[in-house]
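Hi P.,

Sorry for the delay on this. The queue was packed all week, but I finally got your sequence through. Input first:
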Amino acid sequence: MEKHIKNQITKFKFYGFFKNLRFFDPFLLLYLTYSGVTITQIGILWAIREFTVYIFEIPSGILSDNFGIKNELIICFVFYILSFIMFYFGGSFFFFSMAFVLYGLGEAFRSGTHKAMIMEFLEYHNIKGKKSMIYGSTRSFSMLGSTVSSLLSIVLVSVINNLSILFLLSIIPYLLDLVLILSYPTYLNIKTKHRFTFKEFYKSTIFLIINFFKNRDQRLVIADSALYNAIFKTIKDYVQLIMLGILTVSIISNPDEIELYIALIYSFLFFISAISSKYAYKLLSFKHKDYILNTIWLMMSVVSVFFIFTNNSITATLFVFSLLYILLNIRKPLMIEKISEVTNNNQRASILSVESQLTSLMIIIMAPIFGYLYDNYGVNVIFATIASIGLFVVLIKQMKSARLNIQGTESK
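Then the structure:
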């Protein structure tokens, strides 16, 4: 592999590393509760963030196709930095709402963009058959960044003793990412059009949505990816709340130690996520990616059932939390390769934005439903529902596979 190709792949890796140096991540729930925000209001803030992503997801993808992916990434980091500043001032539900709107804009402008850039780079240099390996490697650096971030946050919190400062400190790696993106080669500033009008923008949006729903293979793959991601993003906060409750009641005698325990737990989770992502492609040596992706759905159901019977144990809860992260980070690199197989190059950023938007829409629907179930029936009902969804997806996929096999036999 040529030196300039290796150098650019290294830049892709460090982009993810710096992006995940969000020192406040392990303490965001704590910071909000310390600021007087109720659990119900936290749910609303989560919905505000996802609604913002949902509204701006497809427009952001089409803007990247018109103005260039590199330019859009620069804009997204500006939104992130502004949101960190708003989080720092915080203090009220209104300020936090504005912070989550800005953060949601950053997510909308970022999601799918860098993945599309990596895919374009690999195809530009005719590097075939290594998409899942290279993307898994770059994602492992992202998880390594999260691990380092969690460990550094322990030091920062013990020295500074002020959670709000973590938001300002998180601006530094994001500025470094801005500089890194500016150093990307010009040919990665992918765009399909140089002239932009709102009329064309509207037409492109309608065309993209219609084309998405017409393309059956594309629709099924995107829906599969979005549903799994939405379930994970929704339930991980409930698992975290249960873990916090167990730690507070039965393990931690000094309340000031809870931040240390949380940071250590997250550093471990992100470390195993990095390992899972980096070596996910090796599973393709044993089984086809469709088989692996279906198995992960089945394993999510099994893990959910296990959690129902063991959620009073911190060890079992941490085990479930770890498995959920491992499954997600094995699945993501394989799913990115699967999506690339059913999309055209010139619409890849937009299609990945559709996937992220659909994820946000599902979270907007799931979050209040799961919240209602949690308040009225307990966490076990939530995980029973997730297990049922996983089994249903596996059943549908098996029926589809059987139907295709029958059709193939008849055609012979």
